[in-house]
Amino acid sequence: MPISMSLEDYLECIYMLILAKKPARVRDIAAALGVKTPSVVNGVNGLLRQGLVSHEPYGSVELTPAGQRKAVEILDRHEMLTSFLDSLGVDPDTAEADACRMEHILSEPTLAAIRRYLSRHKIKIIPARKIKAEKPAGVR
Asked: For the domain bounded by 5-67, which CATH number is listed?
């Protein structure tokens, strides 16, 4: 079942917090995304309904195996698109912001074509952890 762009953002954020060895509590997700906690609660509930996360009240949000697969897919698209835009000479902040929007709307054939382009031109994928680590907290 497809998920909304905002739920993909929540899932990606949860995964990034987990990769950074930080707790993925509602307040941490809200701070990272610059949104209010009620918005995160609604998002987490949507992810719960789809079986992508588990969450005990006041505890950390955990990814289910299906949630982790989906989060890896989203992060992969994000990293690939950021690297593609960077290779075109787009400044890093703009490339990051544009990749964040593009990752939700491009079709699989278009993503595959971009992946082939990067491979053919031997363009290295920039890890999102590095990209996000260079940004102030809460900035996407």
From this structure: 1.10.10.10
